Amino acid sequence: MKEIDIKYFAEYLVYYFNHRGALISNKKLQKLLYYIQAWHLVYFDNKLFNETPEAWVHGPVYPSVYRAYKKYKAKPISFDSGISRQLLDERLNSFGFSKDQIEYIEAVINSYGKKSALELELLSHRESPWLEARRGLSDYDLSSSPINVELMKSYYAELKRKNEA
User: Which residues pair with 24 in a beta bridge?
Assistant: First the structure.
């Protein structure tokens, strides 16, 4: 499958949360995108997005998405929530996902989407892909170090294996 434009998918997620009446901040959006990418690597053996996350102070970040929503700062990103379920489904279908990919994306959103932005940040800070990308940096050092996609794949595959055992 061809990698998709992460900014377009991020916009879909914002609409998805707005439609459900559960607004999402830029920080939470970043972490959800990261976990969607991580688990896609495990289950489908390829990158989903056309951008690699970076190991920023508050966890994994996709810079283009961050820039698109930075004006909201820590506030929820609010669009016109008048988007219908049909339009939301059409947007999701426009990515060309298989039925399995749609089920997996919904499962990741349902699992990680229940957590707060801070919970997701703290979770990512305990995991080796982010830790490895920040090796040698203090907690508050700015960084644009990329998070290794192969390390993401192996780390979350091992996590899956442990959970299944």
Answer: 77
% pLDDT > 90, the chain: 83
d(CA 135, CA 98): 37
pLDDT of 37: 97
Cα distance between residue 20 and residue 135, in whole Å = 38
DSSP the chain: -PPB-HHHHHHHHHHHHHHTT--EEHHHHHHHHHHHHHHHHHHHSS--BSS--EEETTEEE-HHHHHHHGGGTTSEE---TT--HHHHHHHHHTTT--HHHHHHHHHHHHHHTTS-HHHHHHHHHTSHHHHHHTTT--TT----PBPPHHHHHHHHHHHHHHHH-
What are the tokens at 73?
A: 């700062």
Buried-state track 82-107, b at ≥16 Cβ within 10 A, e below 16: eeeeeebeebbeebebeeebeebbee
Residue 84 has pLDDT above 90, yes or no: no
**93: its two tokens:** 């279908």
- pLDDT per residue over 25-76, tens digit each? 999 999 999 999 999 999 999 999 999 999 999 999 999 999 999 999 989 9
